[in-house]
Amino acid sequence: MRNTIGKVAVVATSVALLAACSSGTTEETPSSAAPAASESEAAIDATGLTLTVWVDENRKPAVEAAAEQFETDTGATVELVQKNFEDIRTDFLAQVPTGKGPDITIGANDWLGELVEAGVVNTVDLGDKAGSFEQVALDALTLDGQLYGVPFFSEAIALIANMDLVADEAPATWDDMIAMGEESGANRPVVFTTSMGDGDAYHLYPVQTSFGAPVFAQDDTGAFIPEVAMGGENGEAFATWLSEQAEAGNVSANLDNETAYELFASGKSPYIITGPWAMTIGGFDGLDMQVYPVPGAGDEQAAPFVGVQGFYVSSQSENTLLANEFLTNYMATQEAQQTLYDLDPRIPVFEGVGSDDKPWLQGFVDAAAQGVLLPSIPEMGEVWSRWNAAESKIINGADPVKTWNAFVTDLEKAIS
Amino acid sequence: MSTRQDEVTAAPPRESHARQFGAGFVVKLLLMMAVNAFGIAAILSAWNAGAWAVLGGLVAFLLLADVIYFSRRMLPLKYLYPGLVFLLVFQVFAMAYTAYIATTNYGAGHNGSKEQAVEAALIQAETEVEGSPTYPLTVVRDGDTLGFAVNDDGTVRVGTEDQPLEDAPDATVGDNGAPSEVPGWEVVPRGDLLSDQALAQDVIDLRVPISDEADDGSLRTREGATAKIYRSSLDWDPEADTLTNTDTDVVYSPNDRGTFVGDDGSTLPTGWYVGVGLDNFSRAVTDAEIRAPLFKVTAWTFAFALLTVVTSFLLGLLFALIFNDDRIKGKKTLRTLFILPYAFPAFMSALLWRGMLNPEFGIINKFFFFGADISWLQDPWLARFAVLFVNLWLSYPYWFLVCTGALQSLSSETTEAARIDGASGWRLFRSITFPLLLVSTAPLAIASFAFNFNNFTIIYMLTGGGPNFDDTTLPLGATDILISAIYEISGVAGGRADFGLASALAVFVFVVVGVISALAFRQTRKLEEF
């Protein structure tokens, strides 16, 4: 009797534990999904296979919808794991080599260099679908001529103007914008995040490029090479400008995203520099807004960073065939891309995706058109924290030229 | 220890409760059944996952558990074993693993095994031949040999890994454009392909040369329905352990740092992690780029931990003394109010303080400094002060609590005796109350020091380690303590990962905390002799 109870307990807990253990991996798990309805020759029956996909909160419902169709057609199970977007890069890098990572993950284009260096991503081939994507989005996920991802949106920061406070006229230069902003009578001429003192080089980058000080040099093909281009006279000019603007109170070290949204939404500033995501989360509903490219302060065109997000396939996936099938035939479709767009509108990268009820979108498209792709070379990882810190110090009153040159020297040392 | 065991075994044989068929035995049996059930389940999981080290450990733990709890002897172990298991699993294993990582170059670019690096190099080197048409494809097989049959503009051509493509004149093409029947070959329906994981992987890995000339490239499919011509510029030779670039004839061979180096000095991007001995440790002390900021960080870590303990202890003690006075009314309510900062989650308090210390929008400047523009968290010394102040605010209630308890437990006889001897006020506190108080609070102070030495939360949430040093290459800042510096170096938050160096520093922190605790506990024993 005791033996029997023991056995039952062993079996019961084993089953429970095994089920718990296997749900996180790509092992075969029994699935009750119905096999494909049609019995034609082309019908795919992948019952029993599980495709694991990492998504963030905003992408989940769209991928879920596409996955449902995929599950009905193939009988395979798609397991969506919702993660914080910020955690995905590190987790993917750590877990893929152990065989525990997902088959597919979403990710940003600036991770690509690091992912390739770590050997955790596979190449993809979109076949005839490639023609339906914006070329710039495909370029963003391409390294050394190889395409590594299926893009689903791009984004760039722009200048949003409150039409109740300023005229519908794109400011030609930074100084024009400040003048128009001051004329509006609002507390501040312009707001944008500086991560509450930590600095935010991303939001100041358009102005920096207008001084002719891009982050890295580019080779003949336009690809970034690990050679810092922020130094020299141009960089110093930008640093000096930044210091002057901080002195004049036009650039504040004490704003973060939430405060900036709040100041803009409540009319305390006629302008805000931010990205398309703010249209969803910024609380700007009901404002009459126009979107323009961020004006430059130097002689050259202001070029914001253009970021692209897409799906990557793990190099250690045991379901590569299924993963490619899912991405090319279920996610690289107008329907799936439209759902992704509807849930979290950014700049669409697929033919025919978009909507008429978002007139502001064109402003971001124009801004992105003058932008440069976020560098995806692995050296980029070394840049951000030093860059942000240097700008933060300058805004807080440090000697601009000295601080900037120290930063450039440190950075050159760090990536050499 | 041994004498105690002897006493137990030498005691007159008395049947233990757990060995009689009473309630105790049943309870023990049920508990052991649960332990065995979970143990075996975990062992099976480890077996399935192929984790042999874990499997061995689990088997050993389970067998030992059964031996210990069903044996007549080993009474002390019956009490100690669960604790020992937890110690081994959660402490010793984690420390040993950290120490192991510290001897590798695990980090950005050295992320996996060598096979994975080779695989990645081959993936990266294989490119589509420009202008390659897309061929409708059917996978065919002859026994164990897999092949591709493609429709090349109306002609069906078949080939395998060893047999370049050749015409198959009698084959027929189906409605979807792909070959439907190929004489001499068994057609594999696409449905089978996707449902059989192993077969699908074989098909993904299959390359069918399109001609005898290797340079022409080979057919490859990604989804099993179409094929394109790809060409790899790298050739892997497992015998020689080298990768050869067929375009430039550069031979890449592995070096002892986990990187493929070509004979022209170039390297392949993807590496793997290898043991580097004590390199990470020596780098931390010899490389000036790392040593200089680390020295500052270490000094601040000690100052931060020490000052936090001293200030919060003194403030807590002061309040405890004041509120221990019988003349104060509503002591209970007041005490409860004092404990409030301790009751909030520290990370939330730190975030709140970060907002309150904002020079422009925070209430500190607005209410207490007449709206002056004081950059609390942007100036190195002000930021250090702010960190200490906020941590004082967070931790004095703990000491208030501890000291109140300790004061109340002091016997009134000693105090009275001192009073009769003529001591009062300051003298009484200095010579009697305080030393007695230290006996019970000193070990807590050491624990508090060790805790604050690794107090990641407050640094990360309040300043993020900033403001950054001006003169160092590592992105560390004035308020970074060792643990937050390790976090920064590890690359978890962004930046280039260097888990090897981060682990080496973690080992250093462990040694420091361990040594200090050991020394300090030895000192406190002297207090007890007082």
In short:
Chain B: InterPro entries: MalF_N (IPR035277), MetI-like (IPR000515), MetI-like_sf (IPR035906), TM_PBP2_N (IPR032550). With 416 residues, chain A is of the alpha/beta class. Chain A contains 15 helices and 15 strands.
What does this structure look like?
The complex is a heterodimer of chains A (416) and B (530). With 416 residues, chain A is an alpha/beta fold. Chain A has 15 helices and 15 strands. With 530 residues, chain B is α+β, with helices and mostly antiparallel strands. Chain B folds into three domains: 2-102, no CATH class; 114-272, no CATH class; 287-528, MetI-like fold (Orthogonal Bundle). Chain B is built from 18 helices and 17 strands. Chain B has helices at 2-10, 23-49, 52-70, 75-102, 114-125, 190-195, 197-205, 279-286, 288-323, 331-343, 346-356, 363-368, 380-409, 412-420, 425-453, 456-462, 482-490, 499-528; strands at residues 110-112, 126-128, 135-142, 145-152, 155-160, 166-167, 172-173, 179-181, 186-188, 208-209, 218-220, 226-232, 234-237, 242-245, 251-254, 260-262, 271-272. In chain B, the strands form four sheets. In chain B, strands 2, 3, 4, 5, 6, 9, 10, 11 and 12 form a nine-stranded antiparallel sheet that branches. Chain B has a four-stranded antiparallel sheet with strand order 13-14-15-16, with helices on one face. In chain B, strands 1-17 form a two-stranded parallel ribbon. The two termini of chain B are 28 Å apart. The interface between A and B is large, with 84 and 78 residues.
